[in-house]
Design a protein that fits this description.
This protein is α/β, with parallel strands linked by helices and 393 residues long. Helices cover 43% and strands 18% of the residues. It contains 14 helices and 12 strands. α1 packs antiparallel against α13, α4 crosses α13 and α7 packs across α8. The chain is elongated, with a radius of gyration of 23 Å.
Length: 393
């Protein structure tokens, strides 16, 4: 009998391990953990590849909930990114349990064909995507230096092969004034809460002049301790987004003027601190994205037409930093969620439902087959290797 192709074999591996992958997805979903505190989720994600014989490097870059697990010795080193952090209060409403389980499935499948395809499979546990920039920190630590191409997927309400995202930065702004009794001597106080109010009014007025794709959203994280005390300290946390990094930087300059306005108007001191590394916009590799689109169609899915993808940026991700550095993709795999979108409780429920389970197994198949096609396409394989070697010179 003829030998099964590598593409067929990776699909068979995912089918054989489907039960283990769904169990992993549900286990992560059941115990949501926040950025840089994903200790149980990290351990669960490593377990199946450790059993398969992957070499585990713990805590790269000093991040205790990150890891890298390698299998094979081929020159084409493929990074598969696994996210597993959750959101405050609403758990896995972004479906990172699906991301982690599908990444593990992809790694297990590719391990079966690594030797014949000249692959090294590198499963990279990347913490703190929701807030904290785990991938940006791992890039700085050199974890991606030898990676020729990187892949991952993200669940969402629709299928998108060449998904885009917005550039992002996040800051905390602290105003320091002076406390006083709000009735006896309010004139002796310097009201830090008033400073953040002025800043937010200024931001509201700025919105009319924001360029297309620019947006800002924030919360008050500290605003006083009692109504009869003039607040001597107040704090904002703001996220700024734009279509690309250049536009983000322009928005940041205007936002800094708004933050300063609060201090000037009230006489407070103020300090702006970066809350996380900036996120770059996604730049999906065109060839890899088209291959993944083919795989979506083969699986009976209906990805958004290519001419609409650029007009549908889906939030922000530190995978953008990876795709700005090396060839990579971050497709969105559709989950039936009853009209709920990511970061809603309804999507959290769907992430552990039948459609979420299907996204785990089908997503792993599609990613693995995409990597196989890269390994077997001599010209494209040479292209990503040359780009990697050029980065390292």
């Amino acid at each position: 009998m003829p030998t099964a192709t590598a593409s067929a074999r990776v699909e068979d591996v995912v089918a054989a391990r489907r039960g283990d992958l769904i169990e992993l997805s549900h286990a992560i979903h059941a115990e949501p953990e926040l950025a840089f505190d994903e200790h149980r989720s990290c351990a669960k994600t490593k377990a199946l590849v450790a059993e398969r014989g992957f070499a585990i490097s713990a805590a790269p870059g000093g991040l205790s909930t990150a890891f890298r697990a390698d299998y094979g010795s081929g020159p084409l080193i493929i990074g598969i990114c696994a996210e597993y952090d959750a959101l405050p209060e609403i758990g896995h409403a972004c479906g990172h349990n699906i991301i982690a389980a599908s990444a593990v499935g992809t790694a297990l499948a590719l391990a079966e064909v690594a030797d014949e395809l000249g692959l090294t499979v590198a499963l990279i546990g990347t913490p703190a995507e929701e807030s904290g920039g785990g991938k940006a920190l791992l890039i700085d630590a050199g974890v991606f230096d030898d990676i020729a191409a990187a892949v991952m997927l993200h669940p969402g309400p629709i299928d998108i092969a060449a998904a885009r995202s917005l550039a992002l930065s996040e800051v905390t702004v602290t105003y320091t004034g002076r406390e006083s009794h709000a009735a006896v001597a309010p004139y002796l106080g310097v009201n830090a809460a008033d400073a953040l109010t002025v800043a937010q009014v200024a931001i509201g007025l700025l919105r009319q002049q924001m360029a297309p794709g620019q947006m800002a959203h924030g919360i008050v994280t500290e605003g006083g301790s009692a109504t009869n005390i003039i607040p001597g300290r107040a704090r904002l946390q703001y996220t700024m987004r734009a279509t690309d990094t250049e536009s983000r930087l322009a928005l940041e300059a205007k936002m800094r003027g708004c933050f300063a306005a609060g201090a000037v108007a009230t006489g407070c001191e103020y300090e702006i601190a970066e809350a996380a590394p900036p996120y770059a916009e996604l730049a999906p590799d065109p060839w890899l994205a088209e291959v993944f689109r083919d795989e979506m169609v083969r699986m009976g899915r209906s990805p958004v037409p290519a001419d609409l993808e650029a007009a549908m940026p889906l939030g922000s991700t530190d995978m953008g930093n990876v795709t700005q550095l090396l060839p990579g993709i971050h497709p969105v795999v559709g989950v039936e969620s009853g009209g709920a979108v990511i970061h809603q409780r309804g999507f959290a429920a769907a992430a552990a439902g039948p459609s979420g389970d299907r996204a785990v197994s089908e997503g792993a198949i599609m990613l693995a087959r995409t990597v196989v096609r890269l390994a077997e396409a001599a010209g494209e394989r040479d292209r990503v290797l040359e780009l990697r070697d050029r980065r390292r010179r």
